[in-house]
Amino acid sequence: MTFPAFTSSQGEPRSRGEELGSHRRAAIAANLAGYTDLFRVAGATPAQVRAWGEQALDRSAAWAPRLADEVAGIASGAGLEPWQVAVVNARTEILAALHATGEGECSTSVVLPGPGLPPRTVQTWDWHDHLRDAPMLWEFEPSPGHVVRTFTESGALAKIGVNSAGLGVHFNILRHDADTAEIGVPVHLIARRILDEAATVEEAAGIARSATVSASTVITAVTAGGAGAIEISPAGVAVIPPDPGGVLLHCNHFLDPALAEGERHATERPGTYARLRHLRDHAGELSGDDLTKRALALLSHGPDDAPVCAHPDPAQPIDQRWETLATIGLDVRAGRLRVHQGGPCQVTEATWQTF
């Protein structure tokens, strides 16, 4: 099983978006429908969702006009309104506005093994099982000679990815008391702009600090020589460095002491602490050069163990059904992703898709 992949041939944002929207028209519409169902179950009205989408589009246009043009292009190609594609890109912000929570979510490991050795990274990507067909792989050139490859959702501008400047990003959601329904710049667009423009952790953090956000997330930036978990919240931005051994682990709670004072996700769904303990207990295996072994080090199922590898309970409503939909490693030196469709319990040497 592999994720669908698309390589853009267009260089300008609007035309690149139209090309993608046309090629992935059915998948983008299905993804929008899936999120519409999710927001409805979480308590949103159609009028609220539209207003939030329009607000996200306005905030995006003010912060990154070219990315807003690309969103409009995707909408044109897919036969949708721009606000509808903005809703897909702002799903984190809309869920924060609805105070939505869940037990699942992602676990990220980055290890810098030493001078001359490539970073060893791996993460699980957990999301709602009714959206398991949303992911895709996308390659494009936001500027001549600068290649970006990203694992994202159909219609979303980016998520986890790498660029040809030697920088990659992992992605985990966070929740903070400062999160608000006054929709800000979507965090998925922050990840996209980092991939488009940054070559260092410092540049990535600067891009994050330039955005006014309404929802929280952590974007872990990694290069051949460094890494930093960029915790983003309406309360501020903080960068968590690797420990003295080069290990940088993150789940779904804030690690910066000041931002942690407003932590919300972990107080409501404390499984994130158990997942981080599991990663720390397996830091040795997560330091190895074999991606399959790193992925298997994440293998842990709740309820008796840390729920790193998530499987949905069909008896729950859709907003509480979580599944590990992908396991992903970054090769920042080669500018490529290695992606497995599903959780660590299904990984073998043969299941990796290289992109």
Structure description:
This protein has 13 helices and 14 strands. 35% of the residues lie in helices and 24% in strands. 55% of the residues are buried. The chain has helices spanning 13-23, 25-41, 46-63, 65-78, 82-89, 91-97, 187-197, 201-209, 257-260, 265-268, 271-281, 283-286, 291-297, and strands at residues 5-7, 107-111, 120-128, 135-143, 146-153, 160-163, 168-173, 217-223, 226-233, 236-240, 247-250, 322-331, 336-341, 353-354. The mean pLDDT is 95. The strands form 2 sheets. The chain has an 8-stranded mixed sheet, with helices on one face. Strands 11-2-3-12-13-14 form a 6-stranded antiparallel sheet. It is α+β, with helices and mostly antiparallel strands. It has 2 domains: 5-97, Arc Repressor Mutant, subunit A; 107-354, Penicillin V Acylase, Chain A (4-Layer Sandwich), CATH 3.60.60.10. Residues 122-343 form the Peptidase C45 hydrolase domain.
